[in-house]
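Researcher: I'm comparing several assemblies side by side, and this is the next one on my list. It has 1332 residues spread over three chains. Same procedure as the others: predict the full complex and return the structure.
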Amino acid sequence: MQVTARGKSQLDGSSVVSLIDHHRPNWSLEQAFYVDPAIFELERELWFPRQWSLVAHNSEVPERGRYIVRQLFDEEIIVVRFGDGEGDIAAYYNVCTHRGSRLCAKDGRGRLLVCPYHAWSFRLTGELQTRQDLPGGVDPDAVGLHRVPTKCLGGLVFCGLEEASLPDFQPVADALDGELREHGIDRARIVARKSYPMRANWKLVFENFLECYHCGPAHPEYSSVNAHVKVSATRDKDKAAEWHQELETWRSLVGDAEFNKRVWEPGGLDKTPFGMHRKPIGDGRKTLSQNGQPVSRLMGGRNTYDGGQTGFRVGRLSFLSAANDFVAAYQFIPRNVAETDIVVTWLVDKDADANVDADAISWLIHVTTLQDLKIVGDNAAGVASRAYRPGPYTALESEPSSFTQAYLAEMRSLLTGERPTAAPVWQLPEGYAGQSGCKVTQTA
Amino acid sequence: MQVTARGKSQLDGSSVVSLIDHHRPNWSLEQAFYVDPAIFELERELWFPRQWSLVAHNSEVPERGRYIVRQLFDEEIIVVRFGDGEGDIAAYYNVCTHRGSRLCAKDGRGRLLVCPYHAWSFRLTGELQTRQDLPGGVDPDAVGLHRVPTKCLGGLVFCGLEEASLPDFQPVADALDGELREHGIDRARIVARKSYPMRANWKLVFENFLECYHCGPAHPEYSSVNAHVKVSATRDKDKAAEWHQELETWRSLVGDAEFNKRVWEPGGLDKTPFGMHRKPIGDGRKTLSQNGQPVSRLMGGRNTYDGGQTGFRVGRLSFLSAANDFVAAYQFIPRNVAETDIVVTWLVDKDADANVDADAISWLIHVTTLQDLKIVGDNAAGVASRAYRPGPYTALESEPSSFTQAYLAEMRSLLTGERPTAAPVWQLPEGYAGQSGCKVTQTA
Amino acid sequence: MQVTARGKSQLDGSSVVSLIDHHRPNWSLEQAFYVDPAIFELERELWFPRQWSLVAHNSEVPERGRYIVRQLFDEEIIVVRFGDGEGDIAAYYNVCTHRGSRLCAKDGRGRLLVCPYHAWSFRLTGELQTRQDLPGGVDPDAVGLHRVPTKCLGGLVFCGLEEASLPDFQPVADALDGELREHGIDRARIVARKSYPMRANWKLVFENFLECYHCGPAHPEYSSVNAHVKVSATRDKDKAAEWHQELETWRSLVGDAEFNKRVWEPGGLDKTPFGMHRKPIGDGRKTLSQNGQPVSRLMGGRNTYDGGQTGFRVGRLSFLSAANDFVAAYQFIPRNVAETDIVVTWLVDKDADANVDADAISWLIHVTTLQDLKIVGDNAAGVASRAYRPGPYTALESEPSSFTQAYLAEMRSLLTGERPTAAPVWQLPEGYAGQSGCKVTQTA
């Protein structure tokens, strides 16, 4: 007998470890990691529960009793404000503890969360309120709602699947809370939200997000607005010189302290990755709009446009891009092995004009993400072919290369129980602002 | 190696037995029973073939040569009248014995069943008619149609998947044939039929059907018509007293013999469950219509409205609800692990006015079943979450609790070959009519 | 433990061999071969790579730089003309060697194949052109496009999945190239193309194509045009006599040499099957049109209508039906275990009138294939039933019987590594032209 019938889902943990051990560093992943439902199931069981993810902005639950229904990986959760303090926000799986029904069909407000099936009611803090129907011998405390770990940070709400598996969130809070507030994110309101259903494995979606090598062929609008494409999308020396000139100009405008502001924690199984860095938009543009002119009121403590943009990352799957007058928050939501949602939420200052132009604000990221929708769909189609082989990451793809390397090291450790032998080195691409003197918190 | 990649379909028989052995009585089922395709496959192989199911009313095959195409579990069957006797009805799998083609695309009439592919023709009794093309050496009797076991009962046609696995039908016939005829079901015609595609495992659909605890929150129309919700949907003592008053009033109207009429066989692997019970609709209503007033001609031997309603159950998956002037027959049809059809057929007396108002007749069950469609879809969504845990059945959910207990005992026995150690006790909820003196046929 | 939960995809190679060893010759296949995804996966891995398939006509890539995107089994490929010679055609998997993206979204023209993702560019001969971004140490020759084996034959382009698994194509070329050119296929243009998405396993689609026993019940138009149904669709002796008279009349018209022209290689694992045979359309019809009258210009070297039609087969999955003035080329494209595309391309002489009536040309095969779409869908539905059992092929189904026998022998050999003990005998049905004196190349 030479062969056996192998469906794509016949991989077990040890064959995945073997695939990992044969991975060639700096080459893209083996096909199975992009297409095999069994690997997605392992990620769902082992890797996703270790990730903190952005799920909401605090303006979505503005007062006690307001609740919203949101997606956390393949799970639906309810995010509830249970008190008046900024951090008085909890989240629960959207599952009634009686017979398992979906509890809330949509966003709402109330003193209790009431299941539409048998009217079991739960307090905003999760405990069962209506206990008169409970059979004798059942401890009411054992049938409170199933909590979703929740953290509030600078106006944002983050959740994770399992308390026991999540890394400490405190270092992220210590490092980023102040910066997020300085950017006015805690005092913002939502002006637009769009969901992009990518027909691709979440790692393809994510690798695409992490590199700008494709910006030249694929993103003309993005490239026309962002001067950093001179170093992130090409290795042309003349363009690199132009960018370094742009950097020096911006340094003299904002000052060395602002210029060197940078936080970078590559993270690992026991550490939430996070980061922040600033750079100029370039070409005298004030914000990330089509003509570079303001599209909303200045946010945070700012009283003048400084022509910079700020990137935040919290955990592996949440990002923010902040111009001076608006912020875009990205959520990456893996739905199944072949589908991933990107949800983008645009924020402006809460006192911004009620008639602010949401289309102008969302223009750049919207056109770019629609282009990415096509790109990653085509990438997924090709990766599924019997002709797909891992290919080499180029110098402009160091971020996806670092990510896949870190991902594989973490999966190996989760599958074997062994500690990674060496922490993957993951650095921001060269040529960005703040190369020296920055506050890098990387720890071995 | 700590874990292996487990798709949801990797359960084998022994792990299902282990799940059963860890079941906590009076709590809902473990997640796998509601979502795992491997368990559905086991049910399809072991449990479904032991069930008799309602498939048709005899008015659908009124004369010799009439045939209809119907669904039996995930199989399509042809029900044929082959003779003039009331019971001269046979059924066949809708599969040609030549190359396997679907034989009949839709209901029809003829002396032969002719396959549209190669025109192989079969007699109404299943034998191959056109034998001239058969290769030498092939026994024509070996290529007759594959029969589906069929029983006729009080105007209804019941089928099962496999002769060898089905329990004896005779006790059902002995117990219910007369009652069904007294209700005029053998002399009825179909006035409406609707199919409700539930996006949920059949056991969730079924558990929902078996309890009225959800009637308060979910079924206002049903609750406004049926006085029994005073005991079936709540445990309020005052309402219970009202219901008992209602019962006494009805007892004095119909007499003790009618009041105590009740049949109940909980069934088991070797016994088809069946039952019948009567109770008043309540509040002076004559029938199950919106205003309680008649919607069709009186059925059966009846010459006056007695304000009662009758519930019949035959096997695990077929029910009838009979008012004095119309009958609704329910079929539960599991299609796959996540989809179940409920088909409801409304019957009236065959001599009823041709312009009878089908919408008025089907009103209550139609609005209620549409509500259930939403409810069980939400239940299925929640049950699929990683946060789902079995929950406790309340006192008002004794029927689903009895059903799941019986289901698990039967599955365990089918998987292990061991006899159940104790027959599950399954009784009608308290507070219904006929508590004493009823004919209960439960046998150990 | 009596049973285990078996999903349909749990078959392994040895259980498939066991199914094969229990096959009853001259009966249709066991259910698993028509419905089990694991068997499709084995075919995809072992059997499909051994098949040459028609993918294009050379008029689709008329000059250097023209490329087209086509389907080869479940793979998308790019067929490219890289030079001016008739055979200067290559094909590649539609997968970029950088990160695996789909390379070409649609047909086009250019000096290079440029990936829309990161603009990696490949020469028409497959080599990577843009090498400046390659990381150090990566051999540019190792990242050329993944070639698809390609052969040109009489104006047609054939491809296969894997060079190492494909049988020699030369015998096909030696036998058929001249005949295809005599029929003018190399000097043709495409006048219509239609795709028929059959909801059935490819073997059901294929068996249906190979027999005309169903032509009577299912294909009235086909039967009205083709006199050969007198022997291929029935075993009526009087009709057989009429057909033999038709043959004799045609023999006296075309002469013995033309009459006896016939090529037949049943093929095997190491030999590509191929064949050609001619027969009269019948009833004085000049071509395969509705009224038998010409619908386009005569093709090839022909200067008069001879009333004949020619069937070509190349490999197991490609067929041509040639009338004197048009040709229909059939591609059978298995997409997954339950779906198969038939693509039909109609060709006329390249100098035919620009206003030639495509509907008249495609009429017969279009109506017939639409009927087959329904037929094979119903066949697939029945074959999936638990009541399906293999059935006996009749004398008029010798071709599907030969095919399934050959298929099983080949699968067994691929699964076990053992040579078939006896070559299956596969002959054209009796009663066709050229019974004696024909050039049969069958080799043991």
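Model: For your comparison table: Chain C touches chain A at residues 9, 11-14, 16-17, 37-39, 41-42, 45-46, 75-76, 93-103, 105, 115-119, 132-135, 138, 143, 146, 161, 414-417 (CB under 8 Å).
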